[in-house]
From TrEMBL:
Start and end residues of each stretch annotated as Disordered: 1-24
Entry superkingdom: Bacteria
Pfam families: BrnA_antitoxin
Protein name, entry field: BrnA antitoxin family protein
């Protein structure tokens, strides 16, 4: 084992933060230029923010067999198919 303990020495370029450092810290959006965030590439397969949100996010509890039914057809897009099924039901059964 290395008795010098190099790994425990403080890194001058990245000093250990003090309580005061944490209290003075600000979110990146407040200190970095907007161009920084604009230049960041999205990860592959990551969707961008909706320009004009057309749907609302909700939390909904469903029976497992309902989820299994829609996922068994094809796991991808099961929520879209469930949405379409609900729309069809509404069209056929107006209140």
């Amino acid at each position: 084992m290395n008795k010098d303990h190099d790994s425990l020495k403080e890194d001058e370029e990245n000093p250990i933060w003090t309580k005061d450092d944490f209290e003075k810290a600000q979110p990146a959006q407040n200190v970095l230029p907007k161009e920084f965030f604009a230049s960041m590439k999205k990860a592959r397969g990551q969707r961008g923010k909706q320009k004009d949100p057309t749907k609302q996010q909700v939390t909904l509890r469903l029976d497992p067999e309902i989820i299994d039914y829609f996922k068994s057809q094809k796991p991808e897009g099961w929520q879209t198919r469930l949405n379409q099924a609900l729309k069809s039901y509404i069209d056929e059964h107006p209140i």
